[in-house]
Design a protein that fits this description.
The complex is a heterodimer of chains A (313) and B (200). Chain A is α/β, with parallel strands linked by helices and 313 residues long. Chain A has helices at 16-33, 58-69, 90-99, 114-121, 137-151, 169-180, 209-213, 237-244, 248-253, 274-277, 284-302; strands spanning 7-8, 47-52, 73-78, 104-109, 125-131, 158-162, 184-188, 204-205, 218-221, 259-261. In chain A, the strands form 2 sheets. Chain A has a 5-stranded parallel β-sheet, sandwiched between helices. In chain A, strands 8-7-6-9-10 form a 5-stranded parallel β-sheet. In chain A, helix 2 links the parallel strand 2 (47-52) and strand 3 (73-78). In chain A, helix 5 packs across helix 6. Chain A is globular. By secondary structure, chain B is α/β, with parallel strands linked by helices. Chain B has one domain: Rossmann fold (3-Layer(aba) Sandwich), CATH 3.40.50.2020. In chain B, 26% of the residues lie in helices and 25% in strands. In chain B, helix 3 links the parallel strand 4 and strand 5 (127-135). The chains are: A alpha/beta (313), B alpha/beta (200). Chains A and B meet through helix 1 of A and loops of B.
Chain lengths: 313, 200
């Protein structure tokens, strides 16, 4: 089935074929962003609005560049400087952005499910750029793309996700995407941060990081959300770094060609040492570049059928 | 499907390409600074065949580029789902090069308009020429080819099918009458007929 969605809310409800189509479209997009002049006429006349209720550097800027390089105009609504400070509610803000002429709304919100509400409220195409602890589909897509660049097929690939699985939307979207493309996924982290019953998704839980990485192809290191430390979910950052931090010693145990990923921003010295983050096996900066390519692919594929989508079935 | 009329068989295609390869080298007085750029899909094998023939004549291997014009199509808002995009692969820079664009069928001219824009975004070629295997008329833009394999008369209700060994397993060109108009004919078929046949 060809990709013909107007909204990307999560990877949970995408088919493997749809994911593959996005990843394949990202290949020519990456060629574009390596050009001297990065500009296409494809989305001329389209407007992409980003609406971010949570801070972001990579995701928001990456969406903005993806839209601009495809020829679209962009408008960025950041909550700190918007009418939300005057008490405007989410739906009114969304309707205002639609009335301003946005064709796409890229939403980040602290509440899981906010993009669904948005998609029901406005006619714009909606992309989830992270909703609470639920999903962050474009991050997972860029991770998948980065792995496909390296391995060409994800079937049978052993991927370890380490860290705060419980609160991580990156982990969830990655799990959905990786499993659909045939990878095996192992999660590891402090038992208090592994959601009970996560095995039912089809992942394996290994409590010992060193055991988990022994035969891994890839390790995806999640950011430890420092704000959660106060909630007492793990005893101390120092202990976390000792047990689950990626450092020279862990990399010695892991296979020599292990690929190291991190969605950023990194807490150096906590979940990953500076040495490990800048190891030749780390693809952290490639992930950032690939994020623009994948988002261009998505904007392109979602713009089918004309602005009002009258040609969409 | 309706009746088919043969336009060219394998031998005819080979002879025509042979003539085109000579026209290209003759008019450019050699091959200095030349680059052949095939438009996806079937312009690419044609450009490669021309390069091979030119190599035989001139003992010089011309660079062959691949151009995907999907991002430059003018009918993207008129179709759904979005057409598949593939990579553009140009060996080296286009600036100051003499480029010969190669495509299978010249029809409305919209594919070539898109290809010109796509090339210009990569730099400033010294000149761009156009070589096509078939010119079937019905131009919607002021565009003409510099090297034409064969000019044929067609009606808008016909499609020109170009089959090439590299993409279709055989070399054959025929005109086919569309028994019934396609379900949703695009008002401005941008890509050539071969493109419309679909690669999926």
């Amino acid at each position: 089935m060809r990709f013909s969605r107007r909204c990307l809310l999560g990877l949970e409800d995408l088919t493997a074929e749809e994911i593959e189509e996005i990843l394949e479209t990202a290949v020519p997009c990456k060629e574009i962003i390596q050009r001297e002049v990065k500009k296409l006429p494809t989305l001329r006349g389209w407007t992409v609005a980003t609406l971010f209720y949570e801070p972001s550097t990579r995701t928001r800027n990456s969406f903005e560049l993806a839209a601009k390089w495809l020829g679209a105009d962009t408008v960025n609504v950041t909550i700190a400087t918007s009418s939300v400070q005057k008490g405007e509610n989410f739906i009114d803000t969304a309707k205002t952005i639609q009335a301003l002429g946005a064709d796409f709304i890229v939403l980040r919100h602290s509440m899981a499910g906010a993009p669904w509400l948005l998609a029901r409220t406005v006619d714009c195409r909606v992309i989830n750029a992270g909703d609470g602890a639920h999903e962050h589909p474009t991050q997972a897509l860029l991770d998948l793309f980065t792995l496909k660049e390296r391995f060409s097929s994800l079937a049978g690939l052993k991927v370890v996700i380490v860290g705060d699985i419980m609160h991580s939307r990156v982990a969830k979207s990655n799990i959905y995407g990786l499993l659909k493309l045939g990878a095996t996924v192992r999660v590891t982290g402090p038992p208090s941060l592994i959601p009970p019953g996560i095995e039912r998704l089809g992942v394996q839980v290994v409590n010992d990081l060193r055991e988990a990485v022994q035969d891994a192809d890839v390790i995806n290191v999640l950011r430890i959300q420092l704000e959660r430390q106060e909630k007492g979910l793990f005893p101390s950052l120092r202990e976390y770094a000792r047990l689950y931090g990626i450092n020279r010693e862990v990399l010695r145990i892991a296979p020599r060609d292990l690929v190291i990923m991190h969605p950023g921003p990194t807490n150096l010295g906590v979940e990953i040492t500076e040495e490990a983050a800048s190891d030749p096996r780390s693809v952290i900066t490639t992930q950032v570049t690939n994020g623009v390519a994948v988002r261009m692919a998505l904007l392109y594929l979602m713009s089918g059928g004309g602005k009002s989508g009258e040609l969409l079935s | 499907m309706g009746t088919k009329r043969l336009v060219m068989d394998e031998d005819a295609i080979r002879r025509v390409l042979y003539r085109l390869s000579h026209e290209i080298t003759e008019e450019n007085k050699g091959v200095d600074g030349l680059m052949l750029v095939g438009i996806r899909t079937r312009g690419v094998p044609l450009a490669k065949r021309l390069a091979a023939m030119i190599k035989e004549q001139e003992k010089v291997e011309l660079p062959v580029g691949i151009l995907d014009i999907t991002f430059y199509r003018d009918d993207l808002t008129l179709i759904s789902p979005q057409p598949v995009v593939r990579s553009t692969e140009i060996p080296g820079r286009v600036t100051d090069r003499k480029i010969v664009l190669v495509d299978d069928v010249l029809y409305t001219g919209r594919t070539i308009r898109a290809a010109l824009d796509a090339l210009m975004d990569l730099g400033r070629p010294r000149a761009i020429k156009l070589a096509v295997l078939i010119d079937r008329g019905h131009r919607q833009l002021p565009i003409r080819a510099d090297y034409v394999g064969k000019t044929i008369t067609t009606s808008a209700g016909e499609t020109v099918q170009v089959l090439l060994k590299e993409t279709d397993g055989e070399d054959l060109i025929y005109i086919e009458e569309m028994s019934s108009p396609k379900m949703d004919p695009p008002p401005f078929p941008c890509a050539g007929e071969a493109e419309e046949r679909g690669e999926e």
